[in-house]
Amino acid sequence: MTKTNSKPTPPPFTGEKTFHTYPWWTPRFWHGMPIGTWLNLIAERGSRASFSRWGLMATVTGLAAVNSFTEPLTMGRFRRQLRDIPATEPPLFIVGHWRSGTTLMHEMLMLDDRFCCPTTYQCFAAGHFLLTEQLATAMLGWMVPSKRPMDDVSAGWNRPQEDEFALMNLGAPSPYRRMAFPLDASDQPEALDLTKLSPADLSRWKLTMRRFLKMLSVRDSRRPALKSPPHTARMAVLAEMFPGAKFLHVVRDPFVVFPSTMRLWRSLHKVQSLQVDPGDTLERYVFAAFEEMYAAFERDRVSLPPGCLYEIRYEDLVADPVGGMRAAYEQLQLGDFDRVQSDFQKQADSMKRYRTNSYSQDPRIVSEIARRWRPFIDRYGYEVPS
Q1: Which residues have a Cβ under 8 Å from the Cβ of 107 and sit 6 or more positions away?
Q2: Fold assignment, 29-379
Q3: Helix/strand/coil for 173
Q4: β-strand 309-313 against 223-227: which pairing, if any?
Q5: What residues are paired with 95 via a beta bridge?
Q6: What is the DSSP string of 262-284?
Q7: I need a labelling partner for 363 at 20 to 30 A (CA). Which of 65, 117, 268, 340 fits?
Q8: DSSP class per residue in 73-98
Q9: 3-state secondary structure (DSSP) of residue 231
């Protein structure tokens, strides 16, 4: 994704022909950055914003200044609470590659009132949501689209969200920084496997993660359930940081995951990027990120204490949501399942109306997936399409 060619390569897979289109005032995650983090991103990635995105650059810069003013006010207002944070149980991390069903798992867990999770607004305004959330979500709810850009999953300020966006906005190293300037980004993942960071960057990442969870616990002291695909490559670091943490791993047919992930990144670039990206190197990035993610996952899984990791196939979860959740609760000792079974059953009944995107298959890509992702295919019992 570093440079464009004169004739962009057509995408190897096609799903729905269009993404949801959003008006210019739709909030982007860059709008939540303080000015220092925003200027650092510009300096790191390059400032060659496409002409059509100059307006977005201007609004991000203006709001970054507002964020930099509001963050210290929040720290001052909540100094005592952040010093004496309430005790919370170790986090439950929902991990798995993008488009594997982690959002479905996250939203099902939110039916259990013993868990909390960061919302879209809390990840958007990660530095000052303690001070601004109530007023901002009430006044600005109309600005958020009802659906995500890549599918028909509901969106909104109060919906569960990936904590990776909060870490990025707070200045931690993150692979999501590439969305801002994809033409200047590497086609290799950055800050995915944390063991590849310098000691200084790793320390900064840990401090940022702890800072965000402290703020989240001040807002809600229940056990946090965190969903972020990049955490799939970080289990050993997270287990060391949070003794007693549990990991719920969702996997899905890689021959569906690949085209769906391509669609995801194209939709995010369309909505979030400050450059118009034809996606010439996106295929290389998707392959490389998957391989780095699961090399780190396989390395880390053997170091986890017994009973801390449970794995489920998306296909099995969809076929029997209640049974799949019961097995996860029992394996990870998440509490009395009977207490929430009826709520999960209602969710399972509503899922019958949901339709996923469909994709045509390019034999070249099928062959490449079968070759490069063979260990994953064999471990989880998937089959190569004929």
Answers
A1: 160, 347
A2: Rossmann fold (3.40.50)
A3: coil
A4: unpaired
A5: 249
A6: HHHHHHHHHHH-SS----TTHHH
A7: 268
A8: HHHHHTHHHHHSPPP-PPPEEEE--T
A9: helix
> What is the SS3 assignment for 239?
helix
- Token digits for 52? 């059509």
Per residue in 133-161, pLDDT (tens digit) is 998 888 776 556 656 555 556 667 888 99
Q: Tokens 């079968």 correspond to what residue?
A: 370
Residue 314: other Cβ atoms inside 10 A:
22
196 exposure class (CB count in 10 Å sphere: 0-12, 13-18, 19+): middle
Q: Which 3 state secondary structure label does DSSP give 168?
A: helix
DSSP state of 30: G
Whether pLDDT at 122 is above 70: yes
Amino acid at 250: V
- pLDDT tens, residue by residue, 187-234: 999 999 999 999 999 999 999 999 999 999 999 999 999 999 999 999
Query: Please, which contacts does 256-259 make with residues 24 or more away whose CB atoms are closer than 8 Å?
Result: 256/99, 256/359, 257/97, 257/98, 257/99, 257/100, 257/290, 258/13, 258/286, 258/290, 258/365, 258/369, 259/12, 259/13, 259/14, 259/15, 259/359, 259/361, 259/365
Chain position carrying tokens 């990206």: 277
Rounded CA-CA distance 330/311 in Å is: 12
Instruction: Work out the pLDDT band at 305, boundaries 50, 70, 90.
Output: very high
Q: What is the pLDDT of residue 12?
A: 34
- Could you tell me the end-to-end alpha-carbon distance of the chain, in angstroms, rounded to an integer? 31
Q: Give the Cβ contact number of residue 249 at 10 Å.
A: 22
At 339, list the tokens.
């207490």
Closest CA to 228 of 168, 298, 141, 304: 168
CB-hemisphere CA count at 13 Å for 62? 6
- Amino acid of residue 148: R
Q: List 223's β-bridge partners, or say none.
A: 115
pLDDT band at 9 (very low <50, low <70, confident <90, very high): very low
Q: Among residues 57, 31, 33, which one has the least CA distance to residue 46?
A: 57
Residue 59: count of CB within 10 angstroms of its CB: 16
Q: How far apart are CA 236 and CA 129, in angstroms?
A: 29
